[in-house]
Write a structure and sequence with these properties.
The complex is a heterodimer of chains A (303) and B (274). Chain A is mainly α and 303 residues long. In chain A, 76% of the residues lie in helices and 0% in strands. Chain A contains 14 helices and no strands. Chain B is mostly helical and 274 residues long. Chain B has a single domain, classed as MetI-like (MetI-like fold). The two termini of chain B are 35 Å apart. The chains are: A mainly alpha (303), B mainly alpha (274).
Amino acid sequence: MARLFSSIAARLVIAVPYLWLLVFFLAPFLIVFKISLSEPALSMPPYQPVFDLAGGVSALLERLGQLSFANYLWLLDDPLYINAYLSSIWIAAVSTLITLAVGYPIAYGMARAPASIRPTLLMLVILPFWTSFLIRVYAWIGILKPEGLLNQFLMLLGLIDEPLVILNTTTAIYIGIVYSYLPFMVLPLYSTLEKMDGSLIEAARDLGCPPMAAFWKITFPMSLPGVVAGCMLVFIPAVGEFVIPDLLGGSRTLMIGKTLWTEFFNNRDWPVSSAVAVILLLILIVPIMFFQRSQARSRETGS
Amino acid sequence: MAGSWGRFNIVSLVLGFAFLYLPILLLVIYSFNESRLVTVWAGFSTKWYVELFSNRGLMDAAWVTARVAFLSATVATVLGTMGAVALSRYTRFRGRLLFSGMVFAPLVMPEVITGLSLLLLFVAINFDRGFFTVTIAHITFSMCFVAVVVQSRLLSFDQSLEEAALDLGATPVRAFFQVTLPVIMPAVISGWMLAFTLSLDDLVIASFTSGPGATTLPMKIYSQVRLGVTPEINAVCTILIGIVAVGVIAASIVTKRQEVQRRRDEQTAMHMAT
């Protein structure tokens, strides 16, 4: 009896979260794909049904013949969407590199800090991540705007005569992404750097290797798993980012997350926004799989 | 090691932390500004906080958010812990690869995609949008964060303890609740807190999945931010930052104490055994 109970419990532990994710994570993607193939309609919901299970198999087959890739053709035809995809990938890639350049020295400094203060430093990196993303982006508006704090400060120092225009430019988006995603870069970097065996570098130094060369030949290659994980954690969500380009980028900068939002909420074109989402997912599927494989590998080796 | 902790490291840490904290600090300072102009200092005042509490819409939104965050974090912690146990204790079951994929993907999935797809699901099954749809959406993505946090604790956990309990005749269910769960409890608690703050934070997914009468605080803040920076919003943000900071610091002190206590217990046990 107890064994039966245990085996039911074991099954439930797997089945309940599995079913939840199937219903609320995987199934919705299939629906997005389905709707991206349908025609827009002036009804609620604003699209023509693609599959109607009530009609049976023959009706289903008939419907399959009518699937329309019109939304996709339309997307590919309109340079607005292609430019939005390309500029999202570009902005995300540049921001990821800047985040790496900013995050690496921080992670390195933390890993070399005395062991007694490392937990405190770690906490200081994590703490901003707990405060709202929206608030942290909002904070930058007051700093970057023409009469904002940064310009006031620079003019006070006499470095500039008239305010710099930073808000509502791509520069502001870079700053926003680097700022918001910095903890995601620092944490994986820190965890690889902290485990690193310091004696290797000492050995290289003893053998006459200059510090910079020792860094590029030993430290950096050994921290690559952390670099890859950090870059993926920044790049993938940044491509589809909405809040940062919307609040800091102004109306002229083009990013696909914002385009999708506008299509959906302002133009109420659900089929086109679904097609935008499907293509975005196709672009991101390779880095996502890459991320998952590296995660699974690092978990299996127990690190 | 302290000797080799050179000047370069200290400078990069100081600059790094200044970059992380200065914007938040400025936001907090200017929430106490007398002037309506957010960037011109005109003297200390708490009037925006007073005004805040008489703002009915904001208070309603805060209440909705608190309920959504509490409910979704609690369910997500249960589901996420189950998922973590499934992934770390059952290495072989049908569809395990798909399952682990579904656990890791939401961590990096752009929010616009998750939000849109959930909304289309709710529309397809004719589920009225409101409090429960936002809650379901939040459970779905935060359970994955909980699963990852708890799983990493389970992997570093000494499985021989569990095996000993089983050898002594405990059922797996009992072994889990009496041996495993107490040990992984700090991870489960931080998973809950993570789920709670993720829900408290979320704008994009809530905007897609919410309906009339279920406006969350981030949605309210967002609609006001679009109209410009105001001291009231700075005040709301300061309160939220304060709540989170107190929560996180309290939790870290509690876990640290538990850790010390656990180590002491282990040492006592070792002494008694020898």
